[in-house]
Amino acid sequence: LYRSLLFPQKLHEPDAQGSHRYYSPYDGKVHSGVMYTNSGFWDTFRAVHPLFNLLFPSVSADIVKGLLATYEESGFLPSWSSPGHRPIMIGNHAFSLLADAIVKGVGDIDTKAALAAVTHDAHTEAPKAMRTIGRQGATFYDTLGYVPTPDVGEGVSKTMEYAYNDFCAAQIAHAAGDAQTEMAFAKASNNYKNVYDAATGFMRGKLRDGSWYEPFDPFDWGGRYTEGNAWQWNWSVFHDVQGLVELMGGDDAFASKL
Hints:
Elements: H1 2-6, E1 9-10, E2 13-14, E3 20-23, E4 30-32, E5 36-37, E6 39-40, H2 41-44, H3 48-55, H4 57-74, E7 80-81, H5 94-103, H6 111-122, H7 138-144, H8 155-176, H9 179-188, E8 196-197, E9 202-203, H10 230-233, H11 241-247, H12 251-257
Helix pairs in contact: 3-4, 4-5, 5-8, 6-8, 8-9
């Protein structure tokens, strides 16, 4: 499992003329081009793929182009491909791979196609049979600014992951020259603040009516959180550390809690 997480496997092979072709697990057809699989982005978007952009940019460029091919062939960007879509983990971290490659100038990425893909997935409810593509709780997130408990499981973690993904989408919109969409995604990237409870000092589950889920125990594992609890998820704001510091009461309060 961990070997497959760290070393994405290629589906493509060169033909006699040296052109690459692959069999798509998404539409069952053979296509020209390249595609990699066996990467769970929830585990690799943080460090492994950014490292690929620095050390192996040509490989990373192919991986990222494969993300857009997946969207064309299945209607969604991948979340965990092995070799097709798998209902594992949360978030839209293909957004992160695309944004990181674009801002680092890795590959010749069609930014308008990338923006179309992330915009679609950000506002499309996940299919019931494949809860990890699109967004589970997308309608709630778009209208309330958070994923409510208990309507959707792991609502706190999903809200926080989506907020980071929206930050990534804003970078893609900026590269594509779409200022209006950039502003909308940038605003949504602050949605992590909607699940912060100043009274307890933790990110916690919120009901659809805006009240907090009870009972609350910051050590309670799972439920509103993905593979963690409130103590761990409190810090999961990669894109706005200063905003998180201010939310928690400033430098001294933040450092004390950390």
